[in-house]
């Protein structure tokens, strides 16, 4: 699933041009094509077409793993889920097999939402908070300080790995960048959140920001057939490196299941916490 750096890379390409396409800012929607009805979560297909035709894309933003296109009176949101991608291409190009929603834009181009597994969703709403209201803070925002992270960690009693994946706790982290951040911070994924001291919380805060910034700088990670173009996968510390040497100490990377997610870590750099549960979450305290 694309995480914050991959979604940010797509946002930047849509806004500024890149990944083989041109900028969509200032382009008016001339036509729309919904090729898979369930892709559109809100509104109805007829209402979607009525609201979006003739509208101009004013900006492209991101919130967590969501992409936001500002049409002044409405916002078009996309969540890519497992296999979604947004591409800008020549309108004369043949329609790809897995395109689910297309917008014909001025200048002979189209914006296409391609989603092989059909899990991605789009919303066209007047208030984006209807969709985004439950998201936690942006980890790269200036307001998200080490002190704020420490406060939030103490307020919960959950294993670190599932907690960091919880989009209501922090927005944008997924399996890759959580494993990478925990390794950089020297914290075991089963550590209970409210046991961290201020130094550990600050180390985790710094690590989260660093791995996300590194991912953005390298245009995300290309690890399967869905998202291409980034090279952060060449710099993974632990993710998908089971049995390979830790870049810090040389011990072999291990893989366990935490909350039904494959989790990669170094048992030497990330020592097991005392009396940690073996799997899953514990209840919030």
Keywords:
5-stranded mixed β-sheet; 4-stranded antiparallel β-sheet; alpha+beta; elongated; 285 residues; N-terminal domain of MutM-like DNA repair proteins
Tally of DSSP helical segments? 7
Overall 3D form: elongated
Low-confidence stretches: 275-285
User: If you compute it from the alpha carbons, what radius of gyration comes out, rounded to the nearest whole angstrom?
Assistant: 20 Å
Strand content: 15-25%
What number of structural domains do the residues give?
Answer: 2
Class by SSE composition: alpha+beta
User: How are helices and strands ordered from N to C?
Assistant: HEEHEEEEEEEHHHHHEE
CATH class of the largest domain: Alpha Beta
Secondary structure: elements and pairs:
Blueprint: H1 4-16, E1 29-34, E2 40-42, H2 45-52, E3 59-63, E4 66-70, E5 75-79, E6 84-90, E7 99-105, E8 109-115, E9 121-125, H3 129-132, H4 146-154, H5 160-165, H6 175-185, H7 198-217, E10 254-258, E11 261-265
Parallel strand pairs: 2-9
Antiparallel strand pairs: 1-7, 3-4, 4-5, 5-9, 6-8, 7-8, 10-11
Question: What is the gist of this entry?
Answer:
With 285 residues, the protein is of the alpha+beta class.
């Amino acid at each position: 699933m694309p995480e914050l750096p991959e979604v940010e890379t797509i946002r930047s390409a849509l806004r500024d041009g890149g990944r083989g396409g041109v900028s969509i800012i200032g382009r008016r929607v001339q036509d729309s094509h919904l090729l898979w009805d369930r892709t559109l979560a809100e509104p109805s297909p007829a209402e979607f077409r009525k609201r979006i035709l003739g509208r101009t894309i004013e900006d492209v933003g991101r919130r967590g793993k969501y992409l936001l296109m500002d049409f002044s009176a409405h916002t078009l949101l996309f969540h890519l889920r497992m296999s979604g991608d947004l591409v800008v291409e020549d309108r004369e190009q043949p329609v790809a097999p897995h395109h689910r929603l297309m917008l014909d834009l001025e200048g002979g181009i189209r914006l296409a939402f391609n989603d092989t597994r059909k899990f991605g969703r789009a919303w066209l709403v007047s208030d984006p908070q209807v969709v985004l209201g439950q998201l936690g803070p942006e980890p790269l925002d200036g307001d998200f300080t080490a002190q704020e992270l420490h406060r939030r960690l103490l307020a919960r009693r959950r294993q670190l790995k599932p907690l960091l994946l919880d989009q209501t706790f922090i927005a944008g982290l997924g399996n890759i960048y959580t494993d990478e951040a925990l390794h950089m911070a020297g914290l075991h994924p089963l550590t209970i959140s409210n046991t961290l001291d201020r130094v550990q919380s600050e180390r985790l805060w710094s690590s989260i920001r660093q791995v996300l910034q590194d991912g953005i700088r390298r245009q995300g990670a290309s690890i399967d057939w869905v998202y291409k173009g980034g090279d952060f996968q060449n710099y993974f510390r632990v993710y998908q490196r089971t049995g390979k040497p830790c870049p810090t100490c040389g011990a072999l990377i291990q893989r366990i299941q935490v909350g039904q997610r494959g989790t990669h870590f170094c048992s030497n750099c990330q020592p097991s916490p005392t009396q940690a549960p073996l799997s899953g979450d514990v209840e919030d305290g």
